[in-house]
Amino acid sequence: MLEPMHIWRKNLGQILAPDSAHLLARSLATLEVRVLRQNSTALHLANVLQQHPLVQKVYYPGLENFIGHEIAKRQMNGYSGMISIVIKGDGTAATKMVDGLQLFTLAASLGGVESLVSQPALTSHRDLSPAMRQSRGITDSLIRLSIGLETPEDLENDLIQSLSECSRN
């Protein structure tokens, strides 16, 4: 029974390194507080972005008009720290908006204590054809936000200033 796992054990090792185990254990102590903060901030930002004239669509399960809101309300204890938005304009406008952010860090992989931003058409889904992306709802103007632990007001101001700057160009 153990033979199929031999290659995995050889390549990955048998146990987690002590330093990694310590960091993991230490971070678990504050996980709930961090997730609650991210959820709260994300809900606040989703509501703000939903009202912004340059935002065409906001995808966030905490919004009452989100297609899966009722299911999310029953199944979740928060609505996550992830928000997707579609801004009015094309991919160039979305890139300007992303580039104008000061507090969000551009990243292909999302999640963490810092706020991150991604433009899927140029990162995670760039290998798909435009038709394939479109069929999945991944437009050139789709932006994904992973909300970190910064203050909600600072993140809101950053998003608003970047959207405003984007509209001027």
Which features does this protein show?
169 residues, Aspartate Aminotransferase, domain 1, five-stranded mixed beta sheet
Question: Care to describe what's here?
Answer:
- The chain is an alpha+beta fold.
- It has one domain (31-168): Aspartate Aminotransferase, domain 1, CATH 3.90.1150.10.
- It is built from 7 helices and 5 strands.
- Strands 1-2-5-4-3 form a 5-stranded mixed sheet, with helices on one face.
- The termini are far apart.
Brief rundown of the structure:
The protein has 169 residues and is α+β, with helices and mostly antiparallel strands.
Secondary-structure blueprint of this entry?
Elements: H1 6-12, H2 18-28, H3 31-51, E1 55-59, H4 69-75, E2 82-87, H5 91-100, E3 105-106, E4 116-118, H6 130-135, E5 142-146, H7 152-168
Parallel strand pairs: 3-4
Antiparallel strand pairs: 1-2, 2-5, 4-5
